[in-house]
Specification:
With 118 residues, the protein is of the alpha+beta class. The protein has helices spanning 8-23, 46-51, 54-64, 70-77, 82-98, 102-117, and strands at 26-33, 38-44.
Length: 118
């Protein structure tokens, strides 16, 4: 309609899908990117997420959300305190849950794409 070509955006989407799949406990079984929408077939691997050590959860979360990982990093460094241990455990389990949640996966995909496109 506008005469403008947005095919380069398809590659943005494919790259972001691969980045998110590497961090989340979600397997991308298939995908199709069309000119104005996309389809994904996803599988949540809960066993994989549950097998991650706390350090692995922190590593994956901070790779996807570098600025958001500061709290967990701080709590991890201060883990000798009982209060910090409890907070750390709570935050890690919350992040582990999010890293195995399709809604969070889609949120990250759509939000990053919208920010870049606009």
């Amino acid at each position: 309609m506008s005469g403008r070509n947005f095919d380069h955006r398809k590659q943005w989407l494919v790259i972001r899908i691969k980045e998110l799949a590497a961090g989340f406990a979600i397997d991308v079984c298939a995908y199709a990117v069309m000119s104005n929408h996309y389809h994904l077939v996803l599988h949540v691997d809960l066993a994989d997420a549950k097998s991650w050590s706390d350090e692995e959860v922190i590593k994956r979360w901070t790779a996807l959300f570098p600025s958001n990982g500061k709290l967990i990093e701080t709590l991890y460094l201060n883990r000798k305190s009982k209060t910090a241990q409890k907070q750390l455990h709570k935050k890690i389990e919350e992040r582990r849950s999010r890293l195995s949640d399709i809604s969070w996966f889609m949120r990250c995909l759509n939000e990053s794409f919208a920010r870049r496109a606009n």
